């Protein structure tokens, strides 16, 4: 079978247009087991949370990573900002290989990468005022400029919609609403003027009527402050409103990668097709008619041979059980890891 | 205002559909340090036999509290008042024994998190056999097992899985076991409280298919409580919308989605992310956030956020009225308010 160039071959060296480059990233977590079990088995089992993933995030774009639980999307996020060390592979941030950095250098680089987590109540310290929470990053990264901290914090708080900041500054997380809490988390992330924001399910907890406002805020901030987003989500409908490009993950592998509109219009991987079809449409006239694939996402300790989706794939053939498909570019900028994806190309 | 509400046959088409459960003026009041909080406030609606009724609302709207109140699962000091007429009997008058029989045999519940609602040290078959024997003590274990395996097989759980413990099963499988527990006593009503929320989207879609099949096969009614309105659009026959403890709109799912009446419903439907590229390019941004129920807004509870509020919305509370056959709404836009000088003349219909 003729293969087009793989992603690795195409980007051998760093490209200045990319803020983040991830090459063949692997993260295997050892499974906790008793000494005797390990001795008898003669080896240690690993959860292959991320198993050879490559992608790049261009400057100023919102890059989405989507997948079901256990697909490795959160682990990739943590690897990209250096919260975890990869088992194998390279993460390059602004051309710098993160694995070469000393702890102190990493800490300095952190001001340029900030995180927004899913649950604002759990990620805010209940005993710290909102003002202190927002200023915390400044205290750590710019201890010499103490005098300016308050002004910087107030400006950013008012920008994210916590106005007047004087009203919120001395309040505690439990005194404000859920939507406001998420704004505090956004303000805290922006206060060190980062280039990259890792947003891990940032609005999954918010109610529908609040969600639209938070999404709009995130899009506005991105354009205004020239931010780059790594947006991690299981919700493909929400991703549509923020992401420019999207990668679909299945069991630690990237199965499809392209512009969001391209993926949603012409999904080339059978898994992506199923995933998109499963998302309910808020219109009772357009109920789903497609039959869902069998089974559930398998155990990542012992993933299926060949193509990892083959046991659930309605189009699987013998070839798929043996040969692991390589991510290849089938349409301009549209990468897919399925050896039979040509069959799904638009005619 | 509550005095303007007249109990009546709730739905014009009720003659054709059989009513399973009538809920009238149901109020659930939690005692808090800040005084009583009516998490569910004078809610009135019907559930028909064999229908899937979607109950939607945001967090804090009272939808889960309502679901539990239907099984009288709020122990004192929480106060539940109003009427729940189930198959012609007022279950609010039941004593503890009758109530125990009612729960499980007439109404059963599927909860959000199957891991915390299944006993971790009990096998799947033990769960279901126990459920049968609690309600039908004379049933022999062997007979119960027979019933269990054929039912669970129908739900897509293989026979060999019966001796598994909950942690052996995947999330979707656990939720199927929960569904089986709900069905095994032939309950008339299954309350699914965010039953699919912790599941991945493909597994969720399959459970939705299963619930629909169950309804068709066993003719049970399903009250589907969910914050996911798109999911309710996928499965429900009728939809009820709650806001700040009150029912603000109820009607056929097609009617409510095609022609929403209440301004809250209108805003809600426009703010749901839609995966289709050609639709919902811009999400509607509803101003404000849901109110705190310790001090709910006066009169119409939605008026501080309402783009269509009338001159009286902050003075009088609108009653729930039937704006078109089977489509009820709690809003002054569709009825004469007390300060209106020239009321609409109503034609006497033949």
Question: Care to describe what's here?
Answer:
The complex is a heterodimer of chains A (347) and B (350). Chain A starts with 6 loop residues before the first helix and ends in an 11-residue tail after the last strand. Helices cover 34% and strands 21% of the residues of chain A. In chain A, strand 4 (88-93) and strand 5 form a beta hairpin. Chain A is globular. Chain A is of the alpha/beta class. Mean pLDDT of chain A is 89; it is low at 1-12. Chain A has a domain at 7-105 and 230-340: Rossmann fold (3-Layer(aba) Sandwich), CATH 3.40.50.300. In chain A, the strands form two sheets. An eight-stranded mixed beta sheet of chain A has the order 6-7-8-3-9-10-12-11, sandwiched between helices. In chain A, strands 2-1-4-5 form a four-stranded antiparallel beta sheet, covered by helices on one side. Chain B has two domains: 16-106 and 189-203 and 211-273 and 281-290, P-loop containing nucleotide triphosphate hydrolases (Rossmann fold, 3-Layer(aba) Sandwich); 117-186, no CATH class. Chain B is globular and about 70 Å long. Chain B has 350 residues and is α/β, with parallel strands linked by helices. In chain B, the strands form two sheets. An eight-stranded mixed beta sheet of chain B has the order 6-7-8-3-9-10-12-11, sandwiched between helices. A four-stranded antiparallel beta sheet of chain B has the order 2-1-4-5. Classes of the chains: A alpha/beta (347), B alpha/beta (350). The interface between A and B is large, with 44 and 44 residues.
């Amino acid at each position: 079978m003729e293969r087009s160039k793989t992603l690795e071959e195409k980007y051998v060296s760093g490209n200045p247009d990319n803020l983040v480059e991830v090459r063949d990233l692997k993260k295997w977590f050892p499974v906790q087991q008793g000494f005797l079990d390990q001795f008898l088995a003669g080896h240690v089992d690993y959860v292959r949370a991320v198993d050879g993933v490559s992608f790049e995030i261009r400057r100023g774009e919102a890059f989405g990573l989507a997948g079901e639980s256990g697909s490795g999307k959160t682990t990739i996020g943590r690897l990209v900002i250096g919260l975890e060390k990869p088992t194998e592979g390279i993460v390059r941030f602004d051309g710098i290989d993160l694995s070469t950095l000393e702890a102190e250098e990493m800490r300095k680089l952190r001001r340029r990468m900030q995180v927004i987590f899913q649950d604002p109540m759990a990620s805010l310290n209940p005993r710290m005022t909102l003002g202190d929470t927002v200023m915390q990053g400044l205290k750590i990264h710019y201890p010499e400029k103490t005098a300016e901290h308050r002004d910087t914090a107030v400006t950013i708080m008012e920008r994210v919609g916590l106005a007047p900041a004087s009203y919120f500054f001395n309040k505690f997380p439990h005194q404000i609403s859920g939507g406001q809490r998420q704004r505090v988390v956004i303000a805290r992330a922006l206060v060190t003027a980062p280039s990259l924001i890792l947003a891990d399910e940032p609005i999954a907890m918010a109610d529908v009527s609040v969600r639209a406002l938070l999404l709009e805020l995130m899009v506005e901030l991105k354009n205004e402050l020239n931010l780059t987003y790594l947006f991690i989500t299981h919700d493909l409908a929400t991703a549509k409103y923020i992401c420019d490009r999207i990668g679909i993950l299945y069991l630690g592998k990237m199965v499809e990668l392209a512009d969001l509109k391209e993926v949603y219009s012409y999904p080339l991987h059978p898994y992506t097709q199923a995933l998109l079809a499963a998302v309910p449409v808020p219109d009772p006239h357009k109920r789903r008619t497609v039959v869902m694939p069998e089974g559930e996402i398998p155990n990542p300790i012992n993933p299926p041979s060949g193509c990892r989706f083959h046991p659930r794939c309605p189009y699987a053939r013998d070839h798929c059980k043996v040969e692991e498909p390589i991510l290849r570019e089938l349409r301009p900028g549209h990468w897919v890891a399925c050896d039979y994806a040509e069959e799904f190309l638009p005619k | 205002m509550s005095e303007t509400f007249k109990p009546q046959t709730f739905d014009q088409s009720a003659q054709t559909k059989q009513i399973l459960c009538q809920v009238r003026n149901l109020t659930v009041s939690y005692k808090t340090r800040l005084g009583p909080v009516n998490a569910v406030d004078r809610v009135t609606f019907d559930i028909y036999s064999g229908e899937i009724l979607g109950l939607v609302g945001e967090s804090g709207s009272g939808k889960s509290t309502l679901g539990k109140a239907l099984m009288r699962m709020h122990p004192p000091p929480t106060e539940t008042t109003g009427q729940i007429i189930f198959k012609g009997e007022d279950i609010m008058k039941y004593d503890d024994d009758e109530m125990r029989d009612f729960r499980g045999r007439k109404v059963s519940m599927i909860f959000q998190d199957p891991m915390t609602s299944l006993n971790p040290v009990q096998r799947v078959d033990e769960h279901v056999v126990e459920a049968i024997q609690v309600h039908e003590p004379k049933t022999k274990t062997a007979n119960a097992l027979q019933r269990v395996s054929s039912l669970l097989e129908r739900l897509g759980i293989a026979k060999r899985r019966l001796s598994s413990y909950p942690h052996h099963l995947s999330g979707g499988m656990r939720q199927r076991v929960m569904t089986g527990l709900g069905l095994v006593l032939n309950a008339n009503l299954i309350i699914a409280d965010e039953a699919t929320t912790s599941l991945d989207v493909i597994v969720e879609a399959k459970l939705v298919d299963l619930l629909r099949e169950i309804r068709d096969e066993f003719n049970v009614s399903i009250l589907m409580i969910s914050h996911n309105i798109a999911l309710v659009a996928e499965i429900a026959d009728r939809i009820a919308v709650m806001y700040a403890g009150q029912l603000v709109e109820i009607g056929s799912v097609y009617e409510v989605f095609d022609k929403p009446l209440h301004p809250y419903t209108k805003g809600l439907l426009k703010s749901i992310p839609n995966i289709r590229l050609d639709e919902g390019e811009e999400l509607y941004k509803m101003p404000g956030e849901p109110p705190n129920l310790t001090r709910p807004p006066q009169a119409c509870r939605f008026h501080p956020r309402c783009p269509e509020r009338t001159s009286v919305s902050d003075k009088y509370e609108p009653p729930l009225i039937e704006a078109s056959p089977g489509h009820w709404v709690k809003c002054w836009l569709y009825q004469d308010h007390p300060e209106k000088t020239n009321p609409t003349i109503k034609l006497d219909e033949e």
